[in-house]
Every structure is written in C-alpha cells, then in structure tokens.
Amino acid sequence: MVAKVIDGKEIAKKKRQEIASEVRALKEENIFPGLAVVLVGNNHASKTYVNNKEKACREAGIESFLIALPEEVSQEELLREIAELNKREDVHGILVQLPLPDHIEEKKVIEAISPEKDVDGFHPLNIGRMMTGQDSFLPCTPYGVMVMLEETGIEVSGKHVVIVGRSNIVGKPAGQLFLNKNATVTYCHSRTKDLEYHTKQADIVVAALGKPNFIRSNHIKEGATVIDVGINRDEHEKLCGDVHPEVAEKAAYLTPVPGGVGPMTITMLLFNTLKAARQSKALSKA
Ligand SMILES: NC(=O)C1=CN([C@@H]2O[C@H](COP(=O)(O)OP(=O)(O)OC[C@H]3O[C@@H](n4cnc5c(N)ncnc54)[C@H](OP(=O)(O)O)[C@@H]3O)[C@@H](O)[C@H]2O)C=CC1
Ligand SMILES: Nc1nc(=O)c2c([nH]1)NC[C@@H]1CN(c3ccc(C(=O)N[C@@H](CCC(=O)O)C(=O)O)cc3)C=[N+]21
C-alpha cells in the first residue's frame, strides 16, 4: 500500500479562511481579537514558531502582541507580566512559549494565565473541563490532529488509537480527545516494554516522542493511519518528523513533516483566540 498524504497545509489554509471571515464579522461588532505571545530568552526554534504565529495572526486579521523577555527574567517578573495581560481588554488570548528556562516553574506560570485567555488550553481548569467533556479551550496540537482526521473523513469512533508520548502538551491531551470521540486509547512512553507490539495493533498511531525518524515500518499495521507530530532535525539538520519515510509504503494515510500537524497547531491557536474574543463579548454583556 502507498499512503495517501494528508495535506495539513491545505486543510489549515481552508480553516484559516473561515477564521478570517469570522474575525471580520466580529470586528463589525467592534471586537478586535488580540493574541499576546510571551517569549522568554533567545531560543532559535522558539523564535521561528513565534514568527509563524505572528504571521498567521496578521493574515487572519488578529492583532498580535509580542512580549519578549530576557532569559534571566525572574519568575516574579514574568508572573507580573501575565497579570498585566490578564487585565488588558485588547488581549483575548495569552500564550507563553514553552519550554521556559530552568529557573522558572512552568506550572506556576500556566496557572497564572486567566483560564478565559488560555488559548493553549494548558491551564488545569481547561484540562479538567476537557477531561469531563465540557466546553473548554482544547490544546492546539491535539485539536489540530482531530480536525485533520475529520476533514479527511477518517472515522475515529471504535478505532484503536496508540499514542507514543505522554507529554502534557501533546500525548496526554491527544489521548483524551480520542477517548472523547469514542476511540480505544493506548498510551506508550519511554518505559513501555515492546513498543512495536502495541503500535502494530493500532488503527491510528500518533507519534509524539520527539525522536527523528524513530517509527519504522515494523511498528505499523498494514493500512493504518499514521499521524506524525514530531518536529526534529535529522543528522543533516534537515527538518523531519518522528516517523521514518519508509512508513509511507505500509500506511493508508500519513501526515507529512513539514506541512502536516504543524500548520494545524497554529490554525487551532487562531481558532481559540477567536473563541476567546467572542466569549469576552458575552462576558462583558453579562
Ligand atoms: N507539530 C506541532 O505542532 C508540535 C510538535 N511538537 C513535536 O512533537 C514531539 C514531541 O513533543 P513533546 O510532547 O513536547 O515532547 P516531550 O519530550 O515532552 O515528550 C516526549 C514523550 O515521548 C516519550 N518517549 C521518548 N522516547 C521514547 C521512546 N523511545 N519510546 C517511547 N516513548 C518515548 C517520552 O516518555 P517519558 O514520558 O517516559 O519520558 C515522553 O512522554 C517533538 O518532536 C516536538 O518538537 C511538539 C508540539 C507541537
Ligand atoms: N505554549 C506553547 N504552545 C505551543 O503550541 C508550542 C509551544 N509552546 N512550544 C513549542 C511547540 C512547537 N509548536 C509548533 C508550532 C508550529 C509548528 C509549525 O508551524 N511547523 C511547520 C514548519 C516548521 C518549520 O519550518 O520550522 C510545519 O510543520 O510545517 C511547529 C511546532 C508549538 N508549540
């Protein structure tokens, strides 16, 4: 079998046009959606992502505010900045780019973000709401994966989904969203014994382990759907995923890197910012 490539860029483009048109409608009502991105330090990759986010905001008509802080910024100072952003009426969404330097406690920072502005969906309140199936901001990368499958017409209900990786930002919430859509979910991680045994059973494999080209043909059942979340550099510094290209010969569907999950992540960030702006209107009327 030769896999059909799921074009994340194309799906993202379509979704972003819909978002842009809804942003225009909201502006008619004098609400101008705004996203604040907080970047600590000078990490090159983080800067690239932040630039991508700013560009995507601009194209969707969403205002973006970059708060760039030095690597040495104290946790206190960062928390003060977040408190300011929580108060600003022109800021509907707040994203603190992760990872943060070691001297800052990530959990404290995430909890400082007002849940109504937590467009990453990382605040414990939003995570709890997601787990109990209430309306919430869904974490952008897993949410993007679900939208990609939906747009491609791939059924999730009743399927066996194996997630490789259990981080708070990708693996864990991805499993939860699949469970919410009635999939049977298995989580694998670095202590999993016989990874291949598990992934080989999967109708859908989500690779989010952060190891270049790690998932090979032997891990995959013929005709499975393979979602490659990884963003890595290979030994030639070329961008690559967690899934080896040879998997294309065995899978039915495969997401590319670049041009797969990445553009969808940014799209769902725009979507969440639009949602936050809309809800701010409802709140101010109440
Ligand atoms: N496309 C996008 O939009 C995004 C892409 N990414 C990319 O996705 C990848 C994962 O990111 P993130 O979740 O933040 O990464 P983390 O490093 O936080 O987590 C990696 C997870 O993979 C597990 N793991 C590591 N090695 C193995 C192994 N050999 N076998 C099985 N499991 C393993 C770890 O297990 P354990 O818990 O036991 O340590 C951990 O749970 C990265 O490449 C990252 O760049 C991330 C965010 C967004
Ligand atoms: N608070 C927070 N929220 C995040 O959502 C978050 C984060 N921190 N830290 C880092 C990870 C990573 N991440 C990506 C977003 C877009 C692409 C992306 O657009 N990728 C493109 C191009 C990548 C490139 O050219 O480098 C693609 O895959 O086609 C990748 C990775 C969001 N993350």
TrEMBL record:
E.C. number(s) listed in UniProt: 1.5.1.5, 3.5.4.9
Segments forming domain Tetrahydrofolate dehydrogenase/cyclohydrolase NAD(P)-binding: 139-280
Entry-linked Pfam families: THF_DHG_CYH, THF_DHG_CYH_C
Residues reported to bind NADP(+): 165-167, 231
Keyword terms of this UniProt record: Amino-acid biosynthesis, Histidine biosynthesis, Hydrolase, Methionine biosynthesis, Multifunctional enzyme, NADP, One-carbon metabolism, Oxidoreductase, Purine biosynthesis
GO molecular function, one term: methylenetetrahydrofolate dehydrogenase (NADP+) activity
Domain of life: Bacteria
Residues in Tetrahydrofolate dehydrogenase/cyclohydrolase catalytic domain copies: 6-120
Reactions listed under catalytic activity: (6R)-5,10-methylene-5,6,7,8-tetrahydrofolate + NADP(+) = (6R)-5,10-methenyltetrahydrofolate + NADPH; (6R)-5,10-methenyltetrahydrofolate + H2O = (6R)-10-formyltetrahydrofolate + H(+)
GO CC terms in record: cytosol
GO terms, biological process: L-histidine biosynthetic process; methionine biosynthetic process; purine nucleotide biosynthetic process; tetrahydrofolate interconversion
Pathway(s) where this gene product acts: One-carbon metabolism; tetrahydrofolate interconversion
Classification via NCBIfam families: PRK10792.1, PRK14186.1
Family: Belongs to the tetrahydrofolate dehydrogenase/cyclohydrolase family.
Function: Catalyzes the oxidation of 5,10-methylenetetrahydrofolate to 5,10-methenyltetrahydrofolate and then the hydrolysis of 5,10-methenyltetrahydrofolate to 10-formyltetrahydrofolate.
Subunit structure of this chain's protein: Homodimer.
Name of the molecule in the record: Bifunctional protein FolD
Taxonomic lineage from the root: Bacteria, Bacillati, Bacillota, Bacilli, Bacillales
Gene: folD
